[in-house]
């Protein structure tokens, strides 16, 4: 029987059904954005509940968010009532009654009581309309936050986007972010991300809010639930990263957890030219009230890539355990990842001076997209073992204490071959580097967060202490420039492996060469005024950075540094309407200070105070329920060192990045999901030697970049969707003098996704073609070297739930 009105007074809407479902049970719901009254009617019918409320309570109100997917009754009602000023209570017979402006409203079904609270209290912020992004993310010390409530810019990408794009690495996921671009590390195949014009090393990516845990260099996605990208300076929120990068942004990876319904899934995939893989994903909950959960992801992938002769072997085993109690939540993650790349196409250096150079200010054109200029004797092997444990305990309904700790061990090895191009025709000298590395990292964070009110002002208080300890042991052998082999960038002819001319340390048992100890304590308060329509965030973090270094050649200490510094944060959010937020922030980033070059006249091993990079940002955020957007402007000033005419090294230079970011996301039309955005950046050098390069564009920073991504359901064919992604990136300078540059480039990716049932089993087929036009292009000059874009690559996969 459908809900009906009282025929005279429109006083009550009553949904009559025989059974009231427990709040924890998930039911399939499909309620689009509409008037609140119509939405509640549809919800009551689909959820099979009894719902009562006065009709005048819903007059003139509409829902802000759609309901599409499996939700519990509690989750569904919270989503429908968001921003309405209404809550709900339940009687023992299953009848649910709406109430006005509840304080700690609870949903009671029989003897069970489920307190109304945000999705953050139970785990992850909910997905936004369209499912590709989430409406919230972990904001370091601030915890999980809704996008409209924080004075910062961020994006959070879900497992649905990861699966649809068949993303195998973190770089594949972040190709969808218009503010992020990717390059390789200087000698190997580590993924380096450029956010707001500054590098973020893979070493400095957080795992469930903790630095120093994830595999080094390349991060796979098989065990990843979400990828959260924070845009801007972030030392206050997260503390100093162990590698000292991340001035323009931070990334946090969220691991998969056991879901309420069991996961039994196997995926077979193929990537051109001959790479095949298998991924097994298993998870379930058990015990009383399904409080215990286990999730396992095992994957292997082998074969040749679309780059000629480049092949790899990849293995992953990741396990996640968790416990969800009434007040206590526990989780652990353990993982092992190993990847070997043979004949990997490496970065390219330009020899712009010297008697052999004939470049004369011209950057060589990129070789054919699939051409491989690596050497048959080159290889790289990365092996990581990692683990972490986390605990949260609700001391009261408003206060939560938390603790996370973990560590990893990395073993990196390889023989690297790099091309140093000196001729306009592609002539190059081929160098060799063998550099084994062992690295151990430990990391921990503990804190307390809670809420209270002082009169009409609300407070969200946070206290946290962080610590990261890292030790590196490495040695190397390399080839002097004069002894490098002769080759050519375009013909790819093999070059005999050059002999080692320079040796440093014991390559079979490397000694300690570096230790880093970062410790900090932070406090913050977000004050809410006018019923939280205005939110003011104030905070301080006191950071201690200690670093020691030893020469791999002489084993003597080359530097020793230990200093402390305080970084503040100021942020303001004003929400004049339910769909509009205005925000502004002033925040900083910190990096370990530089060491004076050996050739300078400074004292040997002199280290400078930490770089303090300052950011100012302001913008607007819009949330129309099914789609949203943002527009922001920012300025980041990063100090830099320079050696003067007196041969003294000082921190007197600066890179100033000013930019504008815009984005659009969500599901503006039923069945059409979009991820669109653009970034414009003016990265200006200042205070250079004798002012020679003042005003020039910084190396590796394009003036513009934009993405247009879309995924739409094909009408009349249930389960079939098509997707596309266009990436456009502006030209970049290779050197600070701006004499060498690469042109702008465009890449187009196309794909399809088809989900259906066969013998009651869910089956999903996916196909994607990246770089459809097989464009030959240099993707980046980040780091002062050239990284070539990948060739046309076909990806297909089949997933079966069993």
UniProtKB/TrEMBL annotation:
Which SMART domains does the UniProt entry name for this protein? STN (SM00965)
Record's keyword annotation contains Plastid:
no
Q: Name one GO biological process term.
A: siderophore transport
Q: Which InterPro entries match?
A: Beta-barrel_TonB, Beta-barrel_TonB_sf, Plug_dom, Plug_dom_sf, Secretin/TonB_short_N, TonB-dep_rcpt-like, TonB_rcpt_CS, TonB_sidphr_rcpt
Q: Where are its TM segments located?
A: none
Cellular component GO terms held in the UniProt record: cell outer membrane
Extract the signal peptide range.
1-26
Against Gene3D superfamilies, the record matches this protein to: 3.55.50.30, TonB-dependent receptor, beta-barrel domain, TonB-dependent receptor, plug domain
* Coiled-coil stretches: none
Motif position, TonB C-terminal box: 785-802
Highest taxon in the source lineage: Bacteria
What is its subcellular localisation? Cell outer membrane
Q: Which residues form the Secretin/TonB short N-terminal domain?
A: 49-101
Membrane topology designation: Multi-pass membrane protein
Tell me which PANTHER family the record gives.
Answer: FCUA PROTEIN, FERRICHROME IRON RECEPTOR-RELATED
Which NCBIfam families does the record cross-reference, listed alphabetically?
A: TonB-siderophor
Q: Which family does it belong to?
A: Belongs to the TonB-dependent receptor family.
**What is the official name of this protein in its record?**
Iron complex outermembrane recepter protein
Taxonomic lineage:
Bacteria, Pseudomonadati, Pseudomonadota, Gammaproteobacteria, Pseudomonadales
């Amino acid at each position: 029987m459908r809900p009906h009105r009282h025929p005279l007074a429109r006083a009550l809407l009553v949904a009559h059904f025989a059974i009231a479902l427990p709040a924890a049970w998930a039911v399939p719901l499909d309620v689009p954005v509409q008037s609140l009254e119509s939405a509640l009617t549809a919800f009551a019918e689909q959820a099979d509940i009894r719902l009562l409320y006065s009709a005048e309570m819903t007059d003139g109100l509409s829902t802000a968010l759609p309901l599409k997917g499996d939700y519990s009754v509690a989750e569904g009602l919270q989503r429908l009532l968001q921003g309405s000023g209404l809550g709900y209570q339940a009687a023992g017979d299953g009848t649910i009654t709406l109430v006005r402006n509840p304080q700690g409203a609870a949903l009671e079904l029989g003897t069970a009581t489920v307190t109304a609270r945000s999705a953050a209290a139970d785990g992850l912020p909910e997905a936004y309309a369209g499912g590709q992004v989430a409406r919230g993310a972990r904001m370091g010390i601030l915890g999980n936050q809704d996008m409209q409530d924080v004075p910062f810019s961020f994006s959070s990408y879900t497992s649905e986007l990861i699966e649809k794009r068949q993303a195998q690495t973190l770089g594949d996921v972040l190709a969808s972010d218009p503010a992020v671009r990717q390059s390789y590390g200087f000698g190997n195949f580590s993924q380096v991300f450029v956010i707001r014009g500054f590098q973020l090393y893979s070493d400095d990516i957080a795992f469930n809010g903790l630095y120093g845990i994830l595999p080094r260099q390349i991060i796979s996605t098989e065990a990843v639930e979400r990828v959260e990208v924070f845009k801007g300076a972030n030392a206050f929120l997260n503390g100093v990263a162990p590698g000292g990068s991340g001035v323009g942004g931070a990334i946090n990876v969220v691991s998969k957890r056991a879901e309420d319904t069991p996961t039994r899934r196997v995926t077979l995939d193929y990537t051109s030219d001959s790479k095949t893989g298998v991924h097994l994903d298993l998870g379930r909950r058990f015990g009383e009230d399904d409080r215990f959960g286990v999730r396992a992801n095992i994957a292997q992938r082998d074969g040749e890539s679309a780059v000629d002769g480049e092949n790899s072997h990849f293995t992953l085993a990741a396990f996640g355990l968790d416990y969800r109690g009434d007040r206590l939540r526990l989780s652990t993650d353990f993982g092992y990842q190993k990847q070997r790349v043979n004949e990997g196409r490496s970065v390219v250096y330009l020899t712009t001076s010297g008697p052999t150079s004939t470049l004369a200010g011209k950057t060589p054109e990129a070789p054919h997209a699939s051409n491989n200029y690596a050497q048959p004797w080159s290889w790289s092997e990365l092996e990581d073992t990692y683990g972490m444990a986390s605990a949260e305990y609700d001391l009261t309904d408003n206060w939560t204490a938390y603790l996370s700790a973990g560590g990893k061990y990395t073993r990196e090895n390889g023989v690297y071959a790099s091309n140093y191009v000196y001729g306009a025709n592609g002539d190059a000298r081929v160098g060799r580097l063998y550099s084994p590395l062992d690295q151990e990292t430990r990391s921990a964070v503990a804190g307390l967060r809670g809420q209270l009110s002082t009169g009409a002002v609300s407070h969200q208080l946070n206290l946290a202490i962080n610590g990261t300890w890292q030790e590196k042991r490495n040695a190397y052998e390399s080839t002097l420039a004069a002894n490098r082999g002769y080759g050519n960038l375009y013909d790819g002819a093999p070059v005999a492996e050059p002999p080692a001319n320079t040796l440093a340390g014991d390559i079979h048992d490397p000694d300690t060469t570096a230790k880093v100890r970062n410790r900090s304590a932070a406090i913050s308060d977000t004050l809410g005024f006018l019923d939280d329509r205005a939110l003011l965030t104030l905070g301080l973090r006191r950071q201690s950075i200690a670093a020691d270094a030893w020469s791999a050649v002489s084993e003597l200490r080359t530097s020793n540094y230990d200093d402390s510094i305080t970084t503040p944060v100021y942020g303001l959010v004003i929400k004049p309407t339910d769909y509009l937020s205005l925000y502004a922030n002033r925040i900083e980033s910190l990096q370990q200070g530089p060491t004076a070059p050996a050739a300078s006249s400074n004292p040997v091993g002199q280290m400078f105070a930490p770089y303090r990079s300052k950011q100012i940002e302001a913008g607007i955020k819009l949330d129309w329920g099914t789609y949203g957007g943002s527009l922001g402007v920012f300025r980041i000033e990063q100090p830099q060192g320079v050696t003067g005419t007196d041969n003294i090294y000082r921190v007197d230079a600066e890179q100033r990045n000013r930019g504008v970011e815009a984005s659009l996301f969500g599901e503006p039309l039923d069945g059409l999901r979009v991820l669109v955005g653009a970034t414009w950046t003016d990265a200006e050098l200042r205070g250079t030697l004798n002012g020679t390069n003042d005003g020039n564009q910084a190396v590796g920073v394009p003036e513009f970049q934009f993405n247009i991504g879309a995924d739409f359901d094909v009408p009349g064919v249930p389960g079939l969707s098509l997707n596309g992604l266009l990436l456009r990136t502006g030209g970049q300078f290779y050197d600070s003098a701006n004499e060498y540059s690469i042109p702008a480039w465009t890449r187009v990716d196309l794909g399809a996704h088809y989900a259906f049932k066969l013998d009651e089993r869910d089956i999903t087929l996916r196909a994607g073609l990246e770089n459809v036009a097989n464009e030959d292009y240099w993707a980046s000059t980040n780091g002062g070297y050239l990284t070539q874009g990948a060739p046309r690559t076909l990806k297909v996969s089949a997933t079966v739930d069993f």
